[in-house]
Every structure is written in structure tokens, then in C-alpha cells.
Design goal:
Number of strands: 14
CATH topology: Alpha-Beta Plaits
Strand content: 35-45%
Number of helices: 3
Radius of gyration: 19 Å
Distance between the termini: 18 Å
CATH architecture: 2-Layer Sandwich
Number of domains: 1
CATH class: Alpha Beta
Shape: globular
Largest sheet: 6 strands, antiparallel
């Protein structure tokens, strides 16, 4: 059996900024991605972020936690699609001083009331003492820095933390987000509507400049074309990456 930590991660709002932007607004990813989640876990145990990086190849949180195995299960009631709203700000400092009237209008797309069930485990590639510290802090509700969902306007809440044992089985469907290289087949249910959400998300940092590297992810209630080896938590089938 594989031991793992399970918890609920949620907030009133969230903003996981996409690097691309048009003239109108900054947009958000629909679901939290692995790098943002590692940032939250790093904040909990006091690992440095981007602002403290200096000469290092990666920010400390990413360097030490990048091999942690994670699984992300969106809110099933919402079919993995969270309400979004554009928020407008006035910025009159810094580079905004070059704008007409010395004021820059900033628009951001925020997720409203997002929540996920998160699973994490160490397959031996994360330093054991560091993982044990993370497990202790999560179970005891301790944190060094305040965790937030994308930026500090969006405090993160973590509840229902528990250590569980995962079962290993052949899976014909997946309840979590999974990568597109797993083929889906068909939908077969008269009790619920079919849904299939695809989003290209960051999965790791490029070494030289720390740019995002991307992979397509899927969230769906379709069955898989071929069974895969995977983990289960009671009736929840999980894909870890």
C-alpha cells in the first residue's frame, strides 16, 4: 500500500496567471497547476520562492519539491469549471506613471470559490526529512508563510487533512486531472451528463530561465480506451504526476 496525504484546498477567489495577455485583461488557468501547488506547499514549510532565488537554478520550493507526486481532483459538482469574473484595479505607482493621467487600469480574471481535493506522496525522490516536515505541518495545521492561490490577494484554506493508504488497481476511468497521453474512449451513463475539459497547463520549469513547460491536461467522466495501473482512494481513481 502507498501512504499519501489528502487535503481539501479552497479559497474565496484565485488567480493563476497565464503568461500571455491581450490588451484587455490578464487571464487565469481554470485549475491549479503543479507549480502553483508546489509553491503553496513550499510556503507552508518556509522554502524560498522566486523573490529569493538569486543565483540558484530554480527557486528553492521547486528545486526541493519538484519530484513530489501529486493528484488534483476538481470540484465534481461544478464539472471542474469554476465561475470567473473580471476584476478591475487602478494602479498609479511604478510603470503606471507613464500612462495617460498617471494611472494604469489593470484587469484580472479571478476564479470564484474554487476548491480541489489534493493528494501528495513521496516515491523516495524528495528528501525524507523534508517530506516528513511537510506532512507534520499539514496534519498539524502549521505554516511558516501564508499560502495563497496564485497571489497574495487570494488566501488559501487547507482543511480535512489526513494520511491515507492508497490502493493500487487497474483503472478504466480517472476522477482527477490527467495528461492527454492517456487516451479516452467513450461515455456510458444514463445518470449524469458527459463532460470533457481540456487545458494546457504548466507541468515544470525550464532550467535556464525558469519559463513554464506545458502539457495538455484533461478532466472528464469519459472512460479510458485502455486500462492503466493507478491508485484509488475508496471510490476515487487517481492519476499522479
Amino acid at each position: 500500500m502507498q501512504k499519501a496525504i489528502k487535503f481539501k484546498l479552497f479559497g474565496k477567489t484565485a488567480f493563476f496567471k497565464k503568461p500571455e495577455v491581450n490588451e484587455y485583461a490578464y487571464f487565469t488557468y481554470n485549475n491549479i497547476h503543479k507549480i502553483a501547488l508546489l509553491g503553496i506547499l513550499g510556503a507552508i514549510i518556509g522554502l524560498d520562492g522566486y523573490n529569493q532565488q538569486r543565483e540558484k537554478t530554480y527557486p528553492e520550493f521547486y528545486e526541493k519539491l519538484k519530484d513530489l507526486k501529486i493528484s488534483i481532483v476538481p470540484d465534481k459538482k461544478l464539472k471542474g469549471i469554476y465561475p470567473k469574473k473580471i476584476q478591475t484595479f487602478n494602479n498609479s505607482v511604478g510603470y503606471a506613471s507613464n500612462e495617460e493621467g498617471g494611472n494604469l487600469i489593470v484587469r484580472e480574471q479571478w476564479l470564484e470559490n474554487p476548491s480541489w481535493t489534493i493528494y501528495i506522496y513521496n516515491d523516495g525522490t524528495v528528501e525524507p526529512n523534508l517530506y516528513n516536515k511537510l506532512k507534520e505541518y499539514l496534519l498539524q495545521g502549521k505554516t511558516v508563510y501564508i499560502p495563497y492561490l496564485g497571489k497574495n490577494d487570494h488566501p488559501a484554506s487547507i482543511t480535512q487533512v489526513e494520511e491515507i493508504e492508497l490502493g493500487k488497481e487497474k483503472l478504466d476511468y480517472i476522477d482527477s486531472i490527467f495528461t492527454e497521453n492517456i487516451e479516452i474512449d467513450s461515455f456510458d451513463s444514463v445518470d449524469e451528463l458527459a463532460y470533457l475539459i481540456k487545458e494546457i497547463q504548466p507541468i515544470k520549469l525550464q532550467e535556464e530561465y525558469n519559463f513554464y513547460e506545458y502539457e495538455p491536461f484533461i478532466y472528464t467522466n469519459y472512460y479510458l480506451k485502455n486500462e492503466i495501473e493507478g491508485y484509488t482512494d475508496r471510490n476515487t481513481n487517481l492519476y499522479f504526476f
